[in-house]
Design a protein that fits this description.
Shape: globular
Radius of gyration: 17 Å
Distance between the termini: 34 Å
Number of helices: 6
Strand order of the largest sheet: 1-2-3-5-4
Order of helices and strands: EEEHHHEEHHH
Length: 138
């Protein structure tokens, strides 16, 4: 497992690669998107307000339950609750914060584009060709 720190708006977001998938520390995501002084408390309140998030933490619902992964912290090595990319994107949808709005708009845009591609697969093929060109592939 590879642990890594990334920065978002000069704030730390810890992540770990596990089984070829990135897992992000949930409290770091909450801290970045809310400026909360107590991300754990904010998350508890969020879980009370959004039942599907609460169910996910209990191992139910459609989301992968959070995973405890050890990270180095100021207080020593500790288990941190982490979510994979799908879980983090769902969490972002539940955060009522202006900082979360750009991500929500992006999610809506990507969702809309994928629905269009289901109706017209040529749009998906065209998008993939554009991505390949941007990455320098022929």
């Amino acid at each position: 497992m590879m642990n890594e720190i990334i920065l978002f708006e000069e704030k730390t977001v810890r992540r770990a690669m596990l089984h070829d998938e990135w897992w992000f520390v949930i409290s770091d995501i909450v801290a970045v998107l809310t400026d909360s002084v107590n991300p754990q408390d904010y998350l508890k309140k969020l879980r009370k307000r959004d039942e599907s998030l609460s169910d996910a933490f209990k191992g139910g619902g459609q989301l992968v339950p959070p995973l405890g992964i050890e990270f180095d912290t100021a207080g020593g090595r500790q288990m941190m609750q982490c979510w994979n990319t799908m879980g983090v994107l769902r969490l972002i949808q539940s955060i009522p914060s202006p900082k979360a709005e750009p991500f929500k708009r992006w999610l809506a845009k990507v969702g809309f584009e994928r629905l269009e591609e289901i109706e017209n697969p040529e749009l998906g093929a065209k998008r993939m060709r554009e991505i390949y060109k941007q990455k320098g592939y022929s």
